[in-house]
Write a structure and sequence with these properties.
Helix content is 49%, strand content 21%. The chain has 408 residues and is an alpha+beta fold. A hairpin with a 4-residue loop joins strand 1 and strand 2. The structure holds adenosine-5'-diphosphate and magnesium ion. The site of adenosine-5'-diphosphate (ADP) has 22 residues, from helix 11 and helix 12. It catalyses: ATP + protein L-histidine = ADP + protein N-phospho-L-histidine.
């Protein structure tokens, strides 16, 4: 809309100051009544809760937002002291806030819960001002329930993760002990079997077929070594999981201030995985920018992250013609090195992408996935003050970006 004249322009002239503006507004709109009407409109329209309360503890004036947010009628709100609408656990705090208002502290900001008509409660953020002479509190409140609930959920999640960490290290320890016996006993027994085998063979040659636990010896000699090998492999797998769990709950802190060349780390990860890379793809490439400054941290841990990421990318490829690309760049603006692992794999569905860094979340249990790779990687990157971002288009591929602050 165009300004019709100079009068309106003056209304928004900052130099006029609030009082000046008000005077202009009065002059323009025809006196105080008109201004009052404008304020009344704002008062009624506001989504924030606006009120005047007495130092006697009762509401004196409320806007409709009060009814909308809390569900009471104005009459119900006027009928009882406002303390009674405060959530019982927060009343003490609220009393102290009102006390500071009545002691003349000009503006008080606070957050507390208010009871709603339906028995639930809402978090309100208050800004209040008192006029001690008038004995009145002028206050504005905003419903911040959603933000508070999100914060609470985060806290609960953080506590759960801490508890999970303790639980996991306990479980890892408990599993590790018996697993050590299984592994060493299986290996010992496999040697014992080998030395018993030729005696049994001789007996078989001389006396013909005989039974062992009701199974003919000619069969037992075929599968006994395989059984023992399977026990050994199973226990090695348990060992792998236990080691992963331990890394997860106890990333070594001591070595986190080394100078790490990200290009070296990417190359190291490639050579560790060379066999896997050849197995999964014909198109693997590394594109590295030269002269990227060192980042601060543990090259061993960053390498572990890259191994996890590249391995995930490889496992996501539907056939060998699809590729994986690892690249490094220096992002001057944020002062960080960025390592990117990009694949042309199956991608990650949008409903699970939020969950992939959770411990034990896997869609690959059929091929031995433990769901620990990304949760460990996430913990490592966080310890390095970096970030880990996933972008995926199902059917087309996934890009993971690791951002790590450079050494200063
Ligand atoms: N590059 C990727 N492409 C497709 N899915 C992926 C990729 N990276 C991770 N995922 C998904 O995230 C899950 C968790 O990964 P991770 O923690 O490494 O555990 P795991 O590899 O043992 O399953 C995987 O099971 C997979 O569903
Ligand atoms: Mg993995």
């Amino acid at each position: 809309m165009k300004n019709k004249g100079n009068d309106k322009k003056q209304l928004i002239n900052k130099r006029a100051g609030p009082r000046g503006q008000l005077a202009k507004l009065n002059a323009l709109k025809g006196g105080y009544n008109q201004t009052e009407k404008i304020y009344e409109h704002f008062f009624n329209l506001s989504n924030d809760m606006l009120c005047v309360a007495g130092l006697d503890g009762y509401f004196k004036l409320l806007n409709p937002a009060f009814e909308n947010v809390l569900g009471y009628t104005k009459e119900e709100l006027f009928a009882k002291p406002f303390f009674e609408f405060v959530y019982p656990e927060d009343r003490e705090k609220n009393r102290a806030e009102v006390q500071s208002l009545s002691a003349g502290i000009p503006i008080v900001y606070c957050e507390h819960r208010y009871l709603c008509k339906d028995g639930s409660y809402k978090w309100l953020a208050w800004t209040s001002h008192t006029d001690v002479e008038e004995g009145l509190i002028y206050a504005v409140a905003r419903d911040i329930t959603e933000r508070k609930q999100a914060e609470e959920a985060k806290l609960i999640h953080a506590n759960k993760m801490t508890a999970l960490g303790t639980l996991v290290s306990g479980v890892a320890h408990e599993i590790n002990n018996p697993n050590t016996f299984i592994k060493s006993n299986a290996r010992l027994f496999s040697k014992i079997w080998k030395s018993a085998e030729h005696i049994l063979e001789e007996y078989y040659r001389d006396n013909g077929e005989f039974l062992m636990e009701e199974i003919p010896y000619s069969e037992v000699r075929e599968f006994a070594p395989k059984l023992l090998k399977a026990i050994d492999e199973g226990s090695m797998r348990i060992q792998g999981i236990v080691d992963g769990l331990r890394d997860f709950v106890r990333p070594e802190k001591a070595s986190l201030d080394g100078k790490v060349n990200v290009n070296d780390v990417v190359n190291a990860a490639r050579s560790v995985l060379s066999h896997q890379i050849n197995k999964y793809t014909d198109n693997f490439e590394i594109i590295s920018e030269n002269n990227i400054p060192f980042i601060k941290g543990s090259s061993q841990q960053i390498e572990q992250v890259l191994i996890n990421l590249i391995m995930n990318s490889l496992q996501a490829l539907p056939d060998k013609s699809r590729g994986v690309q690892a690249s490094t760049v220096f992002d001057k603006e944020s002062g960080s090195a960025i390592i990117q692992v990009k694949d042309e794999g199956i991608g990650i569905a949008s409903d699970i992408i939020e969950r992939i860094t959770e411990p034990f979340f896997t869609t690959k249990s059929d091929i031995g996935g433990t769901g620990l790779g990304l949760s460990i990687s996430y913990a490592i990157i966080k310890e390095h003050n970096g970030s880990l971002e996933f972008e995926s288009e199902p059917g087309r591929g996934t890009t993971v970006k690791v951002k790590l602050p450079i050494y200063r």
